[in-house]
Amino acid sequence: MGDLEAVANEVIQKHLKDPFDYEKVQFEVLSTIRYDPLLYSGRLSLPEALLCSPLDQSFFLFLDYHVDRLNETAEFFELPVQKLNSSLLVAQLSQALDDKDVYRAHKMRYLLNKQGHVEIQAIPINSPLNLDINCPPTWTVYLDSEPTIISPFTSFKSTYRDHYTEARKRKVPPGVEHTDVLLFNHADQITETSICNIAVLRNDKNPLTGEIITRWTTPSLSSGCLCGVTRRYLLEKGLICEGVIMKSSIKNGEQALLFNGIMGVAKAVILL
């Protein structure tokens, strides 16, 4: 059993009082992967590289992280599917881009159903990629008014999003861009937003020196949040750390980092 599966089972035992029968839920496993010609870092020129089949792996943001998460998710839900590797995923994604404008960035929606069938949708996007945490605030995030029930569908990404949809209905004004809702679980721990992982500035004490360091802190996976690929990247780079963030600690007007696998990183202001 992989690390993410172990965490998901821990979340179920910790947060779900009633048995959760995900076999009765209609869903597909989902990963959204950014294809972007600006990411290319191979040896060929860009025009030459875009003619290759399959495409170079560097065109796809955090591809190896997506492979790991998709394998963990398929194993958790016991789906009858061949185990992915980077070469296979690149080949599948490249095929989905065959008739597309490969000079444009695309959101690649990788869908895996319960029968093990894979569908990939390539959707053109105009949003630039940002991985710099020192960016100005351009988003607004509203703290939800009700807790979200934590389940395998918060720990793993899928098309079952009723809990996120309901949270957005409660707090996000219709038709407003760059706006999201900040979720918390029944233990009053902050988890994530409806489309992003999140980090806020919190004080962290060095256990050896006693020094207080202010760091961007993201909820641990045991809170029930999604195991996001950009979250993993920022953690491995040491740009954020994990910790428990209580709902009561959130201050009106404080800033937060939002991050996902399509836009990268953005900064938001939290409104209570």
Automatic annotation (TrEMBL):
<dbReference type="InterPro" id="IPR043132">
    <property type="entry name" value="BCAT-like_C"/>
</dbReference>
<protein>
    <recommendedName>
        <fullName>Aminodeoxychorismate lyase</fullName>
    </recommendedName>
</protein>
<dbReference type="InterPro" id="IPR001544">
    <property type="entry name" value="Aminotrans_IV"/>
</dbReference>
<dbReference type="InterPro" id="IPR043131">
    <property type="entry name" value="BCAT-like_N"/>
</dbReference>
<dbReference type="Pfam" id="PF01063">
    <property type="entry name" value="Aminotran_4"/>
</dbReference>
<dbReference type="InterPro" id="IPR036038">
    <property type="entry name" value="Aminotransferase-like"/>
</dbReference>
